[in-house]
Amino acid sequence: MPDQAQEAAASKPRRRQARGERRAAQLLDAAAVVFAEVGYTAASTNAIAREAGVSPGTLYQFFPNKEAIAVELGGRLLEQWRTTNGRALSPENVQLPLAQMVDAMVDPLLEFNSRNPAFHVLMHGPDSPGQVTEAFETLHGAVCRRIEELLALYLPDTPKSEITIFANTVLALFKAGLDLLAVHQDEQAAYRTELKRALFRYLDPVIGDCLPPGP
């Protein structure tokens, strides 16, 4: 009996912790909706609490302010983006013909942004908390280095400085495409096609005549 009582007592904190984690996740999901709808500056903790179906007091039990919510949400989205980016920029995709490679790399990233519009708001918005934008800049640098590594597979004799220019241009084209997609919500398919067309036309004279690297 004492063992059973101890186990029951120990399980209560775990249940409370699990409920707390679910509530925090619920608030972050609600914040993502609100940020995507009105932007970071116009969003309020009251609007986030209302979207989550809880009182503002409940929200403040988990997050002291809107910035803390944005930082936590930004961290969660960045982690998901890293996973998606890792799959998109995989060695297997590099071995595809250029047109197929562009599709294989770009489509998962665009799908991620389509499913998570708050990611664009937080990562590219001029009014996002500094901690969020700093984390994004770190990720931006890592993605650029990964693109450099992939281009170097095609261009082993090209100076690194030149490959860096190619990589930065590819990333800038992609980011510009995301901005267009964010503005033209009703024409997503057309702008996706144009983004991939622009990337293909830029990369074709750079690596189009090169053989894909072997496995």
UniProtKB/TrEMBL annotation:
Domain annotation HTH tetR-type: ranges: 21-81
Entry-linked Gene3D superfamilies: Tetracycline Repressor, domain 2
One Pfam match: TetR_N
SUPFAM superfamilies: Homeodomain-like
Keywords: DNA-binding, Transcription, Transcription regulation
Residue ranges the UniProt entry marks as DNA-binding: 44-63
Region called Disordered, residue ranges: 1-21
Name of the protein: TetR/AcrR family transcriptional regulator
Top-level taxonomy: Bacteria, Bacillati, Actinomycetota, Actinomycetes, Kitasatosporales
